Amino acid sequence: MGARLRVVLDQLVHVVDQDQATAARELTAGLVATAPSGCAVDAIVPAGAQVDVTGVDEVRTLGFGRRELAASWQLGIAPGVGGGMIHAPTLMAPLVRHDRVHDHDQTTVTVWDLCAWDDPGALSKSAVAWQRGMLRRAARHADAVVVPTHAVGERLAEIARLGDRIRVIAGAPPHDFAVPADAESRRGALSLPSEYIVLTGSADTLAAGFRGAVAAGVDAVVLDAPEGSEPRLAEVASAAGLPERRAHVRGALSAADRAAVLSGASAYAATRTVAGWPWRAVEALTVGVPVVASDTGCHRDVIADGGMFAVPDDLPDALADAAGNGSARLRVLASDRSRAFSWAGAAERVWSLHADL
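Below the sequence we write its predicted structure tokens.
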């Protein structure tokens, strides 16, 4: 029998981050599809979880729910997990002392973003403490730490002593992410206008995007807004010159709704500057929307020649161009760039990583 790669699927019941939960399932499916001959994919799950990924072989169901496991693993207590090759698609991993040389045990983890260090106000205090604590454990016990971009890797190297253990493996959009047949009715159900641009970011970075909507002469739709942030974002829009009635703030949406919203946009702007995987930017590329992004290392790593980059002062003009004269060219570039990302490709690199270890 060949190698067995054991994947931690901790968010099957209790979802902490929907994007990361989806990525874990998509990656696991990719690992099954690309498994080398004689190799198998197993799963490690909390109590009460049912694995919904076809092709997973053995499932180790632990005796605790996710919340209890998170607390236990943060303390380095991981009873019942067992050894072997363990890959965690997030920082949630049984990071304990093990012997890679003699017992062939491996543990790798994934860091998708560095909000807990560079924008802690965007998370709860408990989430910040947990992520920082788990990274400290990873620095001691992880055989490799996977990051989605080189820029994240460079920043992570400043935060933790990981040496040559940082490996870059990009993410991807959901494998079935596409414009739904009922996109127009979905946009109607969300009460969206006929013409708009889509923005993502924080209250501190969205002002430039709102000014871009003013410059383009269209409304602005904000995605992924935290619950309760609507009044604050309405104030930011108003201060940027966009009337409150033209700022449409929406929270977390389903993949189908996101595809419908993005596909109906004149352009999309990623205004956030924290190092991390730009989930919505990749989805915008996938449906061929003109993309404008803050000029950061992560955005350049991911978007590359598939969009435009701008500093905050120049972003409004860039958005106006993307929604106007530059639209046709940027739509082609976006679609071309989107082909660089797939979960099958990511899975092949994960298999290679564990083979190298």
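The chain has 14 helices and 13 strands.
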